[in-house]
Write a structure and sequence with these properties.
Strand 2 and strand 3 form a beta hairpin. This protein has five helices and four strands. The radius of gyration is 20 Å and the shape is globular. With about 190 residues, it is an alpha+beta fold. Helices cover about 55% and strands about 20% of the residues.
Length: about 190
Amino acid sequence: MRTIFAVLVLMLCSTHLAAENDNAAQLEDKARQLAAQLGMQLKARLQSAIESGGPASAIAVCNVAAPEIAAELSRDGWTVGRTSLKLRNPANRPDAWEQATLLAFEQQLASGVPVASLQNSTVESDAGETRYRFMKAIPVDGVCMACHGEVISEPVRAALAEKYPQDAATGYKPGELRGAFTMTKILAID
């Protein structure tokens, strides 16, 4: 009888763990999808702005369109955004977990891990709320260089000074870590 009971308990635990693993995989898939959507939509708008008005016009896209895109993607309990260790917009300041993740990304990048593969997730509980958190690294690429690179034109510098007087997000080289897309989903409220 004890053996049967033990087997039933193990089966129930295994089923529960499998369900948790499936749910975690679904959360990660959705978070990756949201990060990809934010990245693609932002990049498309930046490229369009640069083609029509030059690199300085891309600053308005980041200033206005990036938060709008993030807000549009923030639905069904998800909050979508961007953060960095070198801020351009103070509203994107990382919290403690995001900062620790960004520092870990930098260490992994320094050890040879490709920036495009860097991601992290966790489930945390705080103040009666359980949340799933996910971050995906943003690599510096060609479209980023005009506004975030080591050499920035005077019109771009002037636009940055106007929109972001506290800007610390320049001096990057291609392939470096610009920041990360960050997603949060509330799972439960106690």
